[in-house]
Design brief:
globular, 355 residues, disordered N terminus, disordered C terminus
Length: 355
């Protein structure tokens, strides 16, 4: 990353992120960083000054890591995953203060109806600049913020602790503001998606078909959280109520999360007389796909072992193949299996691809 030569005089300044007017996605040569504001700061070790700007509650435990990585003339890795200690250092640099989050970002459990109305900072126009700004001032456009994030890793490696505010002439901002802007863009995009889902429900209320069902669905938006982790059999890593948005459209594709929700619903309706019937979710297909050859029987997978311990006559499971989910039946009594129903799904394959 290109760095300006040190300025002469009592105030030694190295760069912060900066752009020419009007703001636009910056090039590497335009990124400016600052590692000190005055002479007194120069007396403090760089690694300590870097960590002092962090809001990570365990920041002091990362001093040794900062000494290891910062200002060593290293190039930030291009590939993921990052070394664990470096990842933790980047997290410390981008941790946002909790008081900012409480006032400017909606909690994940906020009902959809309230989330749609939640006030968020606007997105600034490309030529928009301000003499002064507040935390609620318009934020830079998403492509600009994305470019800042791409260059943030190298800025951290170079020991930079602040960036120039592209909306003003002279103000500097801590590096965590980049992550704050990025989070705001993601929340704004989610709010738009929920708003479109709500409008879809209202359109369906006007068609004359199942009007009461859609009225009840809209009322549920006053209860349903916009981004809360799912509970129950369909829960999984990263699965939140945002996945339910796929139900509120005529154009969205099926996903593994929605299929798991449907199988969980079917399981809940199995009667005591159907104890010899198993309805599996998408993890069953994942398990089958992980078996590269017949030798997997020597070390039975946990998922299959659970089924082995339960007397079963029939097993029903969703199988994914070539952009379709196939509802498949396996009859252990007749030792046969065949598809029952084919559902068109997304392209490319869902996150948990099952064969």
């Amino acid at each position: 990353m290109k760095q300006r030569p040190s300025a002469s005089g009592p105030h030694k300044r190295l760069a912060v992120m900066s752009v020419s007017r009007p703001p636009r996605p910056p090039t590497t040569d335009e990124l400016e960083y600052s590692d000190s504001e005055n002479d007194s700061e120069d007396l403090i070790p760089l690694s300590l000054r870097f960590l002092q700007s962090s809001h990570d509650k365990d920041v002091l435990s990362k001093l040794e890591v900062a000494n290891k990585w910062l200002n060593r003339g290293l190039k930030f890795p291009d590939k993921l995953p990052l070394p664990d200690d470096l990842h933790q250092l980047c997290v410390a640099a981008t941790t946002m203060p909790s008081n900012i989050l409480a006032h400017l970002l909606p909690p994940d459990d906020m009902p959809v109806a309230d989330f749609i109305k939640f006030r968020l900072p606007e997105i600034g126009k490309p030529a928009q600049r301000q003499a002064a700004h507040s935390i609620r001032s318009p934020i830079p456009p998403e492509p600009y913020v994305e470019e800042l994030r791409k260059n943030l890793g190298q800025a951290i490696f170079d020991g930079r602790i602040s960036m120039r505010d592209p909306r003003t002439s002279d103000d500097r901002l801590p590096l965590w503001v980049i992550e704050f802007w990025w989070t705001l863009h993601r929340v704004r995009n989610s709010r738009m998606e929920w708003l479109e889902g709500r409008d879809w429900i209202r359109q369906k209320q006007e068609t004359g078909y199942h009007q009461q069902v859609f009225r009840n669905t809209e009322r549920q938006l006053s209860i349903l959280a916009w981004n809360k982790l799912l509970n129950g059999p369909a829960a999984g890593v990263g699965r939140t109520t945002k996945h339910l948005l796929r139900f509120l459209s005529d154009d969205e594709w099926l996903s593994d999360t929605l299929v798991d929700m449907m199988t969980a619903y079917l399981v809940s309706h199995l009667s005591a007389k159907q104890r010899d019937t198993i309805i599996a979710d998408t993890s069953f297909g994942d398990t089958i796909r992980s078996a590269k050859d017949i030798s997997y029987h020597n070390r039975l997978h946990d998922q299959l072992e659970k089924f082995e311990q339960r007397p079963c006559r029939r097993l029903y499971a969703p199988m994914y193949t070539k952009n379709h989910y196939v509802a498949f039946e396996i009859n252990f009594h007749t030792r046969s299996g065949y598809p029952l129903l084919v559902l068109v799904t997304s392209h490319p394959a869902p996150h948990h691809t099952i064969c």
